[in-house]
Amino acid sequence: MKQSEIISLSTAELQVKLSEVKKTYAELKTAHAISPIQNPLQIRTMRRAVARLATELSKREL
C-alpha cells in the first residue's frame, strides 16, 4: 500500500485495513514457520504496511 493511498482513507477505514493487514501478516509468518513460503519478501512488505497504517493512525490521534 502506498502512502498516498493510506492518507486518503478515513480513520475508520484505516482501523479496518490495519486489522486486515495484521491478520494477513500473522498468517504469512505462520505459513513461513511451517514450511518456507515462495516469496519471503512478502513478510517484510506486510510488516511495513502494518507500520505505515499504525503510524498514520497515531498521527491522526495527535
Automatic annotation (TrEMBL):
SUPFAM superfamilies per the UniProt record, alphabetical: Ribosomal protein L29 (L29p) (SSF46561)
Presence of keyword Transmembrane: no
Stored Pfam families: Ribosomal_L29
Matches recorded under InterPro entries: Ribosomal_uL29, Ribosomal_uL29_sf
GO cellular component, one term: ribosome
Keyword entries, A-Z: Ribonucleoprotein, Ribosomal protein
Family (UniProt): Belongs to the universal ribosomal protein uL29 family.
Protein name per UniProt: Large ribosomal subunit protein uL29
